[in-house]
Amino acid sequence: MAHKPTPQSFDAGRDIAAASDRAPLWGRNVRLILVLLVLWAALTFLPVYFARDLLFSFLGWPFAYWMAAYGAPLAYLLIIVAYARIMNGPED
User: Fold this and answer.
1) 75 exposure class (CB count in 10 Å sphere: 0-12, 13-18, 19+)
2) pTM for this entry
3) 85 closest CA partner among 32, 20, 8, 17
4) 80 near 37, Cβ under 8 Å?
5) Where would I find the beta strands (DSSP E) of 1-92?
6) Which domain holds residue 40?
7) pLDDT at position 13, please?
8) CA atoms of 78 and 75, how far apart (whole Å)
9) Is residue 20 part of a domain?
10) 11 lies in a domain?
11) Please, what sign has the CA dihedral across residues 78, 83, 86, 89?
12) How many domains would you assign to the chain?
């Protein structure tokens, strides 16, 4: 049977040192999340705001329809893929 760590067996000093080593990585992660969140908001609200200006036809449908039906979900998927690739780090 596997040994479960108990609070008494936990090395608190080592955890504090490990947490301070992770602080720069966490800050980078938060900045990345904020940048991607701003990109998500722009991709969500800017096409809606400018929808009346996007009145030209694209393959027989209004371009605003194509942006909402295909462009935004594809952009959201690309944001998720970018976040996953960045968080996985460089390939060795």
Assistant:
1) middle
2) 0.63
3) 32
4) no
5) 57-58, 61-62
6) 27-88
7) 56
8) 5
9) no
10) no
11) negative
12) 1
Residue 75 has pLDDT above 60, yes or no: yes
pLDDT at 25: 79
Look up residue 77 and give its two tokens: 């998927």
How much of the chain, in percent, has pLDDT values that exceed 90?
27
* Contact in structure between 83 and 32 (CB atoms under 8 Å): yes
Condensed to tens digits (0 to 9), the pLDDT of residues 39-63 reads 999 988 887 787 777 778 878 877 7
- Please report, as a single letter, which amino acid is at residue 64: A
| Tokens 């080592």 sit on residue | 14
Domain membership of residue 1 (yes or no) is no
Measured distance between the N- and C-terminal CA atoms of the chain, rounded to whole angstroms: 35
Question: Residue 72 pLDDT more than 90?
Answer: no
**Does residue 55 lie in a domain region?**
yes
In whole angstroms, what is the distance from residue 75 CA to residue 92 CA?
28
